[in-house]
Each structure stands twice: as C-alpha cells, then as structure tokens.
C-alpha cells in the first residue's frame, strides 16, 4: 500500500497539516504491525496527483488517500489500481478490510488471467486450423509425434514472410509442452 495525504492547501494551518500527516503515520504504523508492506508518501514538493501517478506506474495495487474530510470522518479512501474503483473504509479495523481488499484483487486478477488463457486455448486437428490459431495468438493443443525433424518442419512451414522488424527472424510455431489434461485419448 501507499498512503498519500491529500487536501493540504496554502490556506491549511500548520497544525492541521501536522495533524493530517500524524494520522497518516498512525495508519502506516498500524498496517505495518498487521504485516502489510506500507509506504507513506509525505513529500510536499509534489502534488497528490503526481504522487498518485508515480505509485500507479510503480505497480502499487492499493492507494490509501487521507484528506481533512477523511480524517474528520475517521475513514480511509481506498483506490484500486486494477480497476480504478474508489471506496471508503473506516480507520478502525482497517487492516481486516484491507486484507479482504487484497484477496478480492487476487481473485479478480486470477479470474481475468484464467478467462484470457481459456479463451486463447484451442484444439486443432488440421493445418488450416493451426495457422488460424497462430494468427489469433492462441495456444493450440494439437497432435504431434514429438520428433525434432517434425518440429523443425512445423517451425519452417508456419513462419511468415512478413518482416516485423528489420533483421528480426520470421519465427514460426514451436512446441512448448505436453499438457497434463489431454483433449482426447
């Protein structure tokens, strides 16, 4: 997680600013004690928007924003990187809710990856279907004798004459592995 204090303006009093930063530090300490990796970004020479972007590019999955209104309501604003969804959670027992949020992120990303894999895995039995699967960037489950000479022939025959980059080889298909779950006996 990254904690970013927000809403600090020029009209903000020094005491209010210190109070907001201290609240952020208390939350940071509490989450670290709960076993989370947390970083508080208290740099005042960058805008909150710049810091949001900085941490999103670094791949931090959850951003916690705390502003004056959040502090007054004893809540955290939680922003998920993978969906961009913003929500609020109470500061009290936030570590329990944040653990649930991390589990949900894991489940969402796994579901998306599994769906992508399943939609790009096809069973082919003929050469035309094989080439169509290659064009669609699919993983093809197809009968193969396993001989190196056959694999070389498949690589050669499935290579395209299209030059993607100057000097780059036009690569064909290659055998990856024998799947545990065979499509047929």
UniProtKB/TrEMBL annotation:
Entry keyword annotation includes Lipid biosynthesis: no
Q: Name the GO terms of the biological process aspect.
A: prolyl-tRNA aminoacylation
Q: Which GO terms describe its molecular function?
A: ATP binding; proline-tRNA ligase activity
Provide the E.C. number(s) assigned to this enzyme: 6.1.1.15
Record's keyword terms, sorted: Aminoacyl-tRNA synthetase, ATP-binding, Ligase, Nucleotide-binding, Protein biosynthesis
GO cellular-component term (any): cytoplasm
Is Ligase one of the keywords UniProt gives this record? yes
Per the database record, which ranges form the Proline-tRNA ligase class II C-terminal domain?
A: 127-185
As recorded in UniProt, coiled-coil segments are none
- Top EC class, one word: ligase
Lineage: superkingdom: Eukaryota
The record's annotation in CDD domains points to:
ProRS_anticodon_zinc (cd00862)
**What name does UniProt use for this protein?**
proline--tRNA ligase
């Amino acid at each position: 997680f990254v904690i970013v204090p927000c809403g600090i303006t020029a009209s903000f009093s020094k005491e209010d600013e210190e109070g907001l930063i201290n609240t952020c530090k208390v939350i940071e300490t509490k989450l670290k004690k709960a076993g989370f990796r947390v970083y508080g970004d208290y740099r005042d020479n960058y805008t909150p928007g710049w810091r949001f972007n900085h941490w999103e590019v670094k791949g931090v999955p959850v951003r916690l924003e705390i502003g004056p209104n959040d502090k007054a309501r004893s809540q955290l604003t939680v922003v998920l990187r993978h969906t961009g969804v913003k929500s609020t959670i109470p500061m009290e027992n936030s570590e329990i809710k944040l653990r649930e949020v991390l589990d949900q992120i894991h489940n969402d990303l796994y579901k998306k990856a599994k769906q992508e894999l399943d939609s790009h895995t096809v069973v082919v039995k003929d050469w035309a279907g094989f080439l169509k699967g290659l064009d669609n960037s699919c993983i093809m489950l197809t009968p193969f004798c396993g001989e190196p000479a056959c694999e070389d022939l498949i690589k050669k025959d499935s290579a395209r004459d299209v030059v993607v980059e100057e000097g780059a080889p036009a690569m064909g298909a290659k055998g990856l592995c024998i799947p545990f779950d065979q499509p047929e006996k």
